[in-house]
Predict the structure.
Amino acid sequence: MSFQPTTLFDKVWDAHVVRKIEDGPDVLFIDRHFIHEVTSPVAFLGLKQRGLSVLFPERTFATADHNTPTINQHLPVQDPLSANQLKALETNTREYGISHWGLGNPKNGIVHVVGPENGITQPGMTIVCGDSHTSTHGAFGAIAFGIGTSEVEMVLSSQCIMQPKPKKMRITVNGQLGPCVLPKDVILYIISKISASGATGYFVEYAGEVFENMSMEGRMTVCNMSIEMGARGGMIAPDETTFNYIKGREKSPKGADWDRMLAYWKTLKTDEGATFDKELTFQAEDIQPMITYGTNPGMGVGISEKIPSAEEAGEAPATYRKALDYMGFNEFEDMIGKPVDYVFLGSCTNGRIEDFRQFAKVVAGRRKADNVTAWLVPGSRTVEAQIKEEGIYDILVNAGFNLRQPGCSACLAMNDDKIPAGKLAVSTSNRNFEGRQGPGSRTLLASPLTAAAAAVTGVVTDPRTLAID
Amino acid sequence: MAYDNFTVLESTAVPLPIENVDTDQIIPARFLKATERKGFGDNLFRDWRYDRDGNPIQDFILNNPIYSGKILVAGKNFGSGSSREHAAWAVYDYGFRCVVSSFFADIFRNNCLNVGILPVQVSPEFLEDIFRAIEADPKALLTVNLPEQTITIQATGKSESFDINGYKKNNLMNGFDDIDYLQSIKDEILAFSEKAVY
């Protein structure tokens, strides 16, 4: 048989198909399953009602993150509903023999931060979690995507889910990124170009020099937000950067296993001549620091640009007007100079060590603006420890900032970290939906550098206009 | 969790002509703290439906007694964002059995099918036809015929066919679900796991 050029996505997907159902979905085997306290309790309840057990408990990993407090984690959780969910996760994981990094565990943190950090995430895996930002793990060349609670129950009971195979899209970005342009800006730029639904029905592979030159943290930021353009997931072919990141982590292969897996991982790339259902190409030099102005992540502009008209933005007029009314903005306004009330650094998008390094670069030798309340939330206990070890903590404190404890925090405001109604927040998280960060809150999505620039000036500021070491 | 079988649904519909309705709007995160699946319908579209003091916002469509029915008709890219199945539970628990749009977010569509809601994707033109029919008569009836895979506006007789794969169609018509199916092929899954790379 002649050589058939194949995409990375097809290689990984096809290797996991247990059965193809005619006129139906594929039965897909799942290598790693992450669970958290919010989307798993009803799945465990379902198992009990049906009298089912967990088929492979060693393939599922639990962490508490969505509704955990980010202060006083050593004290009992005060919200009784949150405490009940955390208790349910603890009870369920103990009953079924599933690893659980709960509150207080030194490995606790946001599920999409701790998975890679501990070497659980590896190239060529299928990874799911009841959380749409599971796409993060695609940075390692894995097929990773979010699922609903019924599917969590499927994975627990059978280690499989049933999914129609998505179409394939490749997004290539070549060239060199300019100063102060971070991976977050790259993905916000792409989403602004193709819209919040531009990749619905597709699985995306990111390719080109920009991603090849990106750190693993940066690749995770990009893949994380694949869902924000509707994609099922996003992935990047593993390379030396990937292998160096994985090597030596707790759950990564060791010794002869490492050599065997490395040889396999090196085959995980799209062959020349393989075809995609859709190809898009962008140029790095066209990307500047980005900021959103509306109520979906596709409503973003270069920070020096004005808010576009509905027509320029390609949005339906009624929906567009509703969004700008909610934000209190008008067409053709400048973003720069808008007074900022809150700054949020954190989340599975930008809560890793590299994000704190970037933020610290800006605030070093400066002071937090008096009008700004800043919440800096590490993605995990490990990130928190690194922040202290590297001296970033001292820089933050000297500039008038505090560090909170790890968790999802104000990204979705399930805990007490809620941006008050009407307040404007510059956030490094992933969604600017109405009320996402608290009822009535208004969110501008941006990179850690742009968030830091707002934190020290008190207004939306182009980080390129600040002298940064 | 068991759901009612879906075959032919004839109902009035509730129009929501807004695009990109994300699952945070369908059910905000602060209402995801239950450990059982019940009561989510009370918080469907919570922050569009009630003000901060819990009083109904009169001009929101669910608070307008003229509109009711088991079909929700929404603008394109309905259900984007978070994978929370609670959004589909809220839609079902409120009493909707079918959601019509010109475009659904992938995870929400899967979640609907898994909880017994039929997502019907129609052309943008047909979606406009439906909105117009409801505007002309809030009691306009729609017929959603799953066996035939058609949706019809009764007043005008206009009809369009929709896609659904045969497997999911059979599930909805008979109240089956994927968990039962996967249990039935467990031996095949165990054999597969023996040769899995990971």
